[in-house]
Amino acid sequence: MLILVDSREQAPFSFDRYECETASAGLATGDYSLAGLEDRVAVERKSLDDLIGCLMGAGRERFERELARAAALDRFAVVVEASFQDLAESRYRSRMKPHAALQSVLAFQVRHGSPFFWAGNRAGAEYAVFHFLRHYLREAQERLRSIIKAHGGSPVGICEHSQDAKTSPRADGSLQPSQEEKIMRAKAHG
Fold first, then answer.
1. pLDDT at 178
2. DSSP, residue by residue, the chain
3. What does the pLDDT read at residue 152?
4. To the nearest 10°, the Cα dihedral for 79, 85, 88, 92?
5. pLDDT tens-digit profile of 91-110?
6. Per residue in 75-91, is it b (16+ CB within 10 Å) or e — as a string?
7. Per-residue pLDDT reduced to its tens digit, 10-24
8. Among candidates 141, 183, 184, 140, which has minimal Cα distance to 20?
9. Between the CA of residue 104 and those of 29, 54, 60, 96, 164, what are the distances in Å?
């Protein structure tokens, strides 16, 4: 699994404890995604202080735009490096009242359909990001296998009339770029 880390991410996860590779890339939405699926899935990571900053003033407008873009993805989540209790007990550097912060988060979830995962701490947030993306990739692979099976078991038969270079088969009939090609593509965009 190749996880793309947005090149603007301020405190990126290393994912050292997980079986994956990472590459830096300029993501249009979120801080983390999967190579080749950037237009399908993303995760936004927030520290509690960062989240509170995104609920006020210009930060709020920027965050709302991010959530609006995310609504076009198959799956998106905001993973917070804090617990719900941390928010409720105002364990952040701001004068914003916990009730007002919570109401904003709930409104965003309803308005944009984006779940917020309260991961408890940074390690929990890294775990949540990795496994959210891992589960999405597994489900996408299952969907692709079902599609290929439904069309006679050959990826060439599915795409032989495609004009889209991203889905055209290679000479060997494969649809998926190799892991090396994904890494090279991600590094070229990073």
1. 56
2. -EEEEETT-SS----TTSS-EEEEE--SSSSEEETT-TTTEEEEEE-HHHHHHTTSHHHHHHHHHHHHHHTTSSEEEEEESS-HHHHHTT-SSSS--HHHHHHHHHHHHHHH---EEE-SSHHHHHHHHHHHHHHHHHHHHHHHHHHHHHTTT-HHHHHTT---TTTS--TTS--SPPHHHHHHHHHHH-
3. 83
4. -60
5. 999 999 999 999 999 999 99
6. bbbbbbbbbeebbeebe
7. 999 999 999 999 999
8. 183
9. 20, 10, 9, 11, 41
Name the amino acid, one letter, at 32: Y
Sorted by sequence, the CB contacts under 8 Å of residue 64 that are 6+ apart come out as: 108, 112
**pLDDT at site 166:** 47
Q: Do the beta carbons of residue 34 and residue 133 sit within 8 Å?
A: yes
Show the low-confidence residues of the chain (pLDDT under 70). Answer: 154-190
Cβ atoms within 10 Å of 188's Cβ, excluding its own:
9
